[in-house]
Amino acid sequence: MGSSRNGRRAGRLAALLALPAALGLSSVPVLADPSPPPGEVAPDRLSGAGQDGVALLRVVVPDQAGVDRLNSMGVDLAEYKKPVDGGFEVHAVLSPREAQGLRDLGFDVGGAISDQADVAENATERRAAIALAAGAAEETDRLTPLRAEWFTSLDGQRFLSVEVKSSATDAQTVLTVTWDSGEGTGPDSGGTATMSRFTDAGQYMYHRFNSPLSVTAAPTRATVTSSRGGSVTVPVTKWLGAPRKAPGRHYVADFVDHYMDPTEVTGRITALAREFPRISQIVDLPYRTNGYRRAAQAQFGAAPASTFHVSSKAYGSEGGNDVSLALVRPETASGALSVSVNGKDVVVTLATDGSAAVSSTARQVVAALNADAAASALLSAATYRGDAGGGVVAAAPATRLTDSLKAPDSVSRDPFQVKALRIGKKRDGSKTGVFLYCQEHAREWVTPLVCVETAERLLRNYARDGRTRKVVDDLDIFIMPTVNPDGAHYSMYDYNFQRRNMTNHCAAEAADPARRNSWGVDLNRNFSVGSVFDGYSGASTNCTSDTFAGPAELSEPEARNEVWLTRQYPNIRFAMNTHSYGGYFMWPPGAYKAAGREVLPRVDYGTESFFWDASGHILSAVQSWRGTAIWPGRTGPVPDVLYSAAGNSADEHWYGRGVIGWDFEVGADLYDPATKQFRAVGFQPDFAEGHEEAMEFASGQIGILEIARAFAGDRDRPRSDLKVTGRTGTSATFTFTTDEPANVHYTLDGSRPTLSSPKLAAAGMREGAQQLTVGRTTEVRWFAVDIAGNVERGYRPDGHGDGYRRQRVEVGDPR
């Protein structure tokens, strides 16, 4: 879910932290790097290189009111909150000046969790992994056998263990083993199996079986073949080691070996669809993004009054980067201000007074550029952040405008075609649909790896793993690994803390180059349910806020793509929105109005029980990878365990279309036994940690699919009972129990219960069932209906039968 960075920062936070503008600064002719004028201090991250000094810091506040105060100020809060001595620890993305400003306001701002140096290490690891994969893909790989053994264990059952290393270290290389069934038998008479890729700390070690394979006869030889073309045959020897634990079902996992940008991720799922056309296909989403592109810009001037900036009319990649602007001081006195254009070179000849001194103000230069037909066809100009622009400008040599984008040419600047991978044996809408989507927030680099790993496991295990085959056969699965490709490209190559997409909705006065890291829409605040436009908290209408909800609900193509998918495929009944970090497992409602903490309507008690019941299975699946446990305190409805997130996608899908949706926050705290403290991991941990998070939460996504499959096949009717919990001479108290998550509809007036009758509710937030009290002896009539729609005893609440349950609740002594 979301956070807030320099949002509302242009208003509240910047006002709190900015220094006075009038500092008597010297004149500088041109800011080659588009920094804010020294006369006005913008947030530190927006000066110099655009992100120097920004770090993820700990902040301790005494209570929830302190968290809410930070949120309302526009502080960029991460998806993280935990109780500590003295209150709550939250994490914020802050520049040095912002951190000091909060300290000056009395906040306890602590040390850094991660900073810019971490990104450089990630980038180095990523480049090395890509280079190795590219080299391996160009030629047949070389297989080096390490071990091949058979052994007996316990009651004499035979097992096979094989270990082989491939020269192709990328995660897409798949090794398959065949073996005989004894001397003189066929080379594949014993069986065949796919090997699992074993990694340690994110590094490829070799291929093996997750568990030894059970075999009926002692093999003598095994042949290993690779999807890259390599092959090797090795003798299988008898191993006399200690007994081994009996293996579980063979299963292949671990298919990601570096952080991937959206271009790579999209290519990956497209290749999977080509490789497995029988059980998968690509769905092109209808709304293309704005693209990884920006207008080219340049800024001139020193103090705010004499500063202005220009922006190209064409995107930088479409010619804007070729535009230049020069400010020329003539040698003559009393010269007039004029503009000339030669191709894409714009020249402003500044006006002079009687002593030949420049007299043109920033406001006048801006007006002249915008009024000239040839110049205004190339660029637009604006004074600095709404300043009147009364200061005199200085001459400046020709300066080339630039969009400042740093991604390689492999990243297209065109509008991005977002794709989803649809997996299922029968993809005609007749099966229960599940929507898994990742990376709404650009800076959450682990999340697309989760979706990719899930897709790889489903497709590559389908032919060999019965459990996987049942999931794929019985469901219609939609996987969208990167909702926000433009922002994610920007995060990976330009500014790692980028959260939003790249669409700039700011007016020219708020769009100077120093704010280039402050544009875009928080996609998880752009939806139409419980939005900031409806008065809900946790989003901003300020275009430079990191929780900017956009100019209107569903203004962004990325958000509309999600809505389109759930409408186009109404069989979608389940969804999972994967974010990072903090180790949370959450569900609707996700927003409230600050006044009176008015929460969106809570799900009914039966559905809430289903969420909790399912969480046990899903989180056990997460824990199965390396033992990570998601805390109970970080499990539940969003506002109960985190904060309000106005206009989020889970609420959109649940309240708009009845899609049962969850939110993962991957990256749970790591426990250090030496210090006996938990350590937060941040948005972009070193890949060794990021890899483990991707593995464990892909297991969690598989768990969600198993829950959905159980739902799809549920034909069991719930059973319920009435339990009297208290009795006096004037009243009796009772409740209902059910043998599975279900809603209980009841009447107390002798009427026939229907689906419109009152439902048993929760006693309170995160509590059990409510207790009902009657003041006289009453016949209670009721029935239970589970989440799949199965009704107790086959009773038809919309009919006329009397197959409902009934029981007299006595007031006073029932004897």
UniProtKB/TrEMBL annotation:
It comes from the Bacteria. Pfam families: CHB_HEX_C_1, Peptidase_M14. InterPro entries: GH29D-like_dom (IPR059177), Peptidase_M14 (IPR000834). Residues 1-32 form the signal peptide. Residues 383-708 form the Peptidase M14 domain. Its cofactor is Zn(2+). SMART domains: Zn_pept. Keywords: Hydrolase, Metalloprotease, Protease, Signal, Zinc. Residues 794-815 are annotated as: Disordered. Belongs to the peptidase M14 family. This is Peptidase M14 domain-containing protein. It comes from Streptosporangium brasiliense.
